[in-house]
């Protein structure tokens, strides 16, 4: 089943992004005030006092809330992405090596990049986050182990990076909600449902998009299309 963008899907995602981004942005400002006052209050307290450690708990909770609002802001595309030249094969190779070291030994990443790929313009840290979310999902989809395919090629003014797995694939009722924030089928404490929302937002900030092909029992393939500057059809 192909779940490329339909205009209905796009509209729903735009509405979600506006809502999530607006709420996250305002709450972020309030969190800044809570953090600031908690820090000020803490300064006047004995480090050994109960109140000092209570303030510390407030600051830790603010830290957790801020990382959540940051992820939602990333999804909502509000923050402009840094624009530097990014050589994707290098970035992907480094990321794969780092992730493989932390993954179960039964998971392999099989990378194949077409030579002479154009550079893209973007924010390397965010692109890394995008691809790491896709690779980690692919690994999660293969609890018994397997190979994650990672390929990159040029296609019609875009650099197309695909991440494919040999997992169970997804039924339409999952595929339909994939990119929505907080949509997860993983048990509590295992998934937040923000990985693909973040990936969606990051691709959009770069003038790109994500396409998905999946079928139950046949694995999944996520394709990220990022404009290759200087090519017709790209921004
Ligand atoms: N490669 C895949 N194969 C099968 N299902 C997938 C795959 N990638 C994503 N999904 C489904 O999409 C859901 C949403 O993915 P997403 O990355 O947004 O959240 P998550 O992985 O559940 O949690 P998080 O990424 O925040 O830890 C997953 O819970 C899973 O059901
Ligand atoms: Mg995930």
Helix content: 40-55%
**Oligomeric state, counting identical vs distinct chains:** single chain
Mean pLDDT: 92
| Form type | globular
Count of the separate structural domains: 2
**CATH class placement of the largest domain:** Alpha Beta
Number of strands: 7
The secondary-structure class comes to alpha+beta
How are the strands of the biggest sheet laid out side by side?
2-4-5-7-6
Ligands (ions, cofactors included): adenosine-5'-triphosphate, magnesium ion
Indicate the CATH topology of the largest domain: Heat Shock Protein 90
The description of the largest β-sheet is: 5 strands, mixed
Which CATH-level-2 architecture of the largest domain? 2-Layer Sandwich
SSE layout and pairing:
Blueprint: H1 7-43, H2 50-75, E1 84-86, H3 88-102, E2 107-113, E3 120-122, H4 124-140, E4 146-155, E5 158-165, H5 172-175, H6 195-205, E6 209-214, E7 220-227
Parallel strand pairs: 2-4
Antiparallel strand pairs: 1-3, 4-5, 5-7, 6-7
Helix pairs in contact: 1-2, 2-6, 3-4, 4-6
The structure holds adenosine-5'-triphosphate and magnesium ion.
Magnesium ion (MG) binds next to helix 4.
Describe the structure.
The chain has 235 residues and is an alpha+beta fold. It has 2 domains: 7-75; 84-227, Heat Shock Protein 90 (2-Layer Sandwich). 47% of the residues lie in helices and 19% in strands. The protein has 6 helices and 7 strands, in the order ααβαββαββααββ. A hairpin with a 2-residue loop joins strand 4 (146-155) and strand 5. It is globular. It starts with 6 loop residues before the first helix and ends in an 8-residue tail after the last strand. The protein binds adenosine-5'-triphosphate and magnesium ion. Adenosine-5'-triphosphate binds next to helix 4 and helix 6. Magnesium ion binds at residues 133, 136-137, 191, 195.
